[in-house]
Write a structure and sequence with these properties.
The chain is mainly alpha-helical. It contains 29 helices and no strands.
């Protein structure tokens, strides 16, 4: 058999593999043997799906030129669109703009309508998405209508996806996510091409993250992962969605996998704009694990690439004990936040830092704003974040009873979301609230549970902090009664027996007896020693 016959066999094998969605085999065969315009389009798709982006660009170019030679302007324009779209996804706007202009020129020479005109509406709609979401919605709707008219499932899916994105960004969250779900149904049902499936998934994950809809993101990730397992050699997760997959793993407590995924994103994205977010995510996992130098370096790398490393860097400074630096940073970034949803992603950290800085009113105001946003979003993750922040504010304001009630709700929400780190943080705050109420046995149990959670995760800095708190709580639990703890706090505040008696509605004689019992139980010689003990054990 001569070379020509061998190439024919390779093309046939490549086409068959393409039909079976054996992308690796299809790419291997077509990369050598493809020559017709149709086969070059198959090669372009298989190259993209297997992660060979430059080979995909080259194949689209060759297919475009072949359709021009054959005098088929619309098909040539379609190839130019896909070449441009791939460049846009990689952040190469100038080259993409040139190819889009060529595609439009090819279609302008025709009077008849065609599906390609719908595809060329997509970049226009994307450009308007943030500035004018409802204008973008109209363009996406027009694209979907054209897709329906010409029987183009891919175009219908992109139009549906884009309308969902536009509505969520316009604040019509429920309507928007319903359209996102509809687009994902087309993915998991196998109704659209794998290339569009990956694009739809990444966009849906991004929108779910933006509106705090962790549960929806997690469910669609599981569905898509199952779908991908049926297709050998498919590289479905690319671009910014790689970072969001890492974030989902982080929330679920899968920190080694989250770090591996974030590092993979750094390598995969290389010099693309989304690489900056990937480096930030690397920093986030390192910070949670208590690996502060590595976290700082990752945040710096994100900053070098143009990504503001907040609120992670502020929380890192807080963990390092640099409260003033953390407060200055979080105030700056919150003040510059461009809208309600971007602010929502900062408010939880702002509450935490302001409470550490002793600015309870600022924390209360931020928690109220976060609660209002969470109410509008009606997403479980947003409710958990807001409830946690509200509970922390109650604790700082001295309302231990309200703090326990609210923080237990937060803990239940975190448990429902399978978010073990946040659940452990809620248990820590519940323990502190129990201690404030004089329930030292409860404090010991809650702090022990928090320590157990942090230990399982490998949250080193959090574990050290909680172990110190648990030791203090255990020292006091069972030795002083709730009333004695109350008296000890007032002694530590410098109040006399007479003042204490008046505040607690006791006789001076009873207060004196409590003070004597406290000194005896704790083996202390004086009121000043009792004051020192109270401060050392975090009772004030």
């Amino acid at each position: 058999m001569g070379r020509r016959g061998t190439l024919r066999l390779m093309v046939a094998d490549g086409r068959d593999a393409y039909q079976r969605r054996d992308w690796g085999r299809a790419y291997e065969q077509l990369a050598v043997a493809a020559s017709t315009a149709d086969d070059l389009e198959r090669l372009a798709n298989t190259a993209y799906l297997t992660g060979h982006d430059e080979a995909s660009d080259d194949a689209w170019l060759r297919a475009h030129q072949e359709w021009l030679r054959l005098g088929d302007g619309p098909r040539a324009a379609r190839c130019a669109f896909w070449l441009a779209f791939g460049l846009l996804l990689r952040g190469e706007e100038v080259r993409a703009g040139g190819w889009l202009a060529r595609a439009r020129r090819l279609l302008d020479d025709r009077e008849a309508d065609c599906a390609e005109r719908g595809y060329l509406l997509i970049p226009v709609a994307l450009a308007a998405l943030d500035a004018d979401p409802l204008d973008a919605y109209a363009s996406f709707a027009r694209a979907a209508e054209i897709g329906t008219r010409f029987g183009e499932p891919d175009l219908i899916a992109i139009g549906t996806l884009g309308r969902g994105e536009a509505l969520t960004r316009a604040g019509r969250i429920a309507e928007g996510v319903a359209l996102l779900d509809e687009a994902m149904v087309a993915v998991t049902a196998g109704e659209i091409s794998p290339r569009i499936a990956g694009i739809v998934y990444c966009a849906v994950l991004l929108e779910c993250q933006a509106v705090f809809d962790l549960r929806r993101a997690r469910q669609w990730t599981a569905a898509l992962t199952q779908w991908c397992q049926t297709q050998p050699d498919l590289v479905p997760f690319r671009g910014q969605c790689l970072v969001h997959r890492s974030q989902l793993m982080q929330v679920q407590g899968e920190w080694p996998d989250a770090l591996d995924e974030a590092r993979h994103a750094c390598r995969r994205l290389a010099d693309r704009p989304a690489a900056a977010m990937a480096h930030y995510q690397v920093g986030e996992v390192h910070r949670l694990r208590g690996e502060f130098p590595a976290a700082e370096e990752a945040y710096r790398e994100a900053s070098r690439r143009g990504f503001n490393p907040q609120p992670g860097l502020a929380l890192l400074r807080l963990a390092q004990g640099e409260v003033d630096a953390a407060a200055a940073a979080i105030r700056t970034v919150l003040g510059a936040a461009p809208g309600r949803l971007p602010r929502a992603h900062l408010l939880s950290a702002y509450v935490e830092v302001m409470l550490a800085a002793g600015d309870v009113p600022a924390a209360q105001e931020a928690a109220a704003e976060l609660a209002a946003i969470a109410g509008d979003l009606d997403a479980p993750y947003a409710r958990a974040v807001s409830t946690h922040a509200t509970g922390a504010v109650h604790l700082a304001a001295g309302d231990g009873t309200a703090a326990v009630a609210v923080l237990r709700r937060a803990w239940a929400l975190w448990r429902e979301l399978d978010a073990p780190y946040d659940a452990a943080r809620a248990r820590e705050l519940i323990g502190l609230a129990c201690r404030a109420l004089g329930d030292h046995d409860g404090a010991v149990l809650e702090l022990d549970a928090a320590a157990w959670g942090f230990r399982k995760l490998g949250a080193a800095a959090d574990l050290r902090r909680v172990e110190r708190l648990a030791m203090r709580a255990a020292t006091t639990a069972g030795r002083l009664t709730a009333r004695e703890v109350e008296v000890l706090r007032l002694v530590a505040a410098g109040k006399t027996n007479r003042t204490i008696a008046a505040e607690l509605f006791l006789s001076e004689k009873t207060v004196a007896r409590h003070v004597s019992n406290i000194l005896g139980k704790l083996d202390l010689a004086s009121r000043s020693a009792a004051t020192a003990y109270a401060y050392e054990h975090g009772l004030v």
